[in-house]
Amino acid sequence: MSAASVNGITIDYDDTGAGRPLVLVHGHPFDRSMWRPQVEALAGSGWRVITADLRGYGATTVIPGKTPLPVFARDVAGLADHLGIGDFVLGGLSMGGQIVMECYRQFPSRVRALILADTFPRADTGEAQEFRRATAGRIEAEGMTGYAEQNLSKMLAARNVDAMPAVAGHVMTMMTSAPPAGAAAALRGRAERDDYRKLLTTVAVPTLVVVGRDDEFTPVADAEEMHALIPGARLVVVDHAGHLPNLEQPAAFNDALTAFLASL
């Protein structure tokens, strides 16, 4: 575990392995430990895997209020600068995938390839924006436990909550450990994000789109939409997985990831 002073905050991160750089961005309300199976699979195979706790999550500085996606993207670039990395493969899951899209908007020349997992490119509707803001207020007032209990069976395929107790426990720990003020700030910022569909039609780097077949938050149709928008993208649907296929079915997810990386 290491720490870096970036953009006025302290980012906690792991920098594992040696070789070509791969930066993986976690989702909400998680932390960098969600990528542990991928770090273990890739770090010894010619890849330098960088995972960090986002602003407001894990052990990284919490800034209350509102954190827009462009701020998260600048933190990704700032950490890469701190590490002396010019260009890199960039992947993210859920909110992390939306941060990745914003990164591509801000600095496409630094992105060698994209991995978009269980995410979607559309802006929130007015109703969805209000729901995110209401949720932000609730978790600030009540903490993360109720939110985590309510959403566990949507984060994982419902049957996996009982079938995979270690995975379910890890996901619950990440959610209940998330700083409420940081998670709320991200929700407020995410509510105001851009629509990335037009951007995706301009993507000029290899792209892998991955989704769990039973994902309730970002269904297969969302992945199919991204696959259709991005020139030359490849799509992988992971069976027996919900919103977190990298944890629910790590072997299948890692197979898709390593095959994609080997093609670069």
Automatic annotation (TrEMBL):
Residues 21-249 form the AB hydrolase-1 domain. Coiled coil: none annotated. InterPro entries: AB_hydrolase_1, AB_hydrolase_fold, AB_hydrolase_sf, Epox_hydrolase-like. GO terms for molecular function: catalytic activity. It comes from the Bacteria. PANTHER family: MONOACYLGLYCEROL LIPASE. This is Pimeloyl-ACP methyl ester carboxylesterase. It comes from Paractinoplanes brasiliensis. The lineage of its organism: Bacteria, Bacillati, Actinomycetota, Actinomycetes, Micromonosporales.
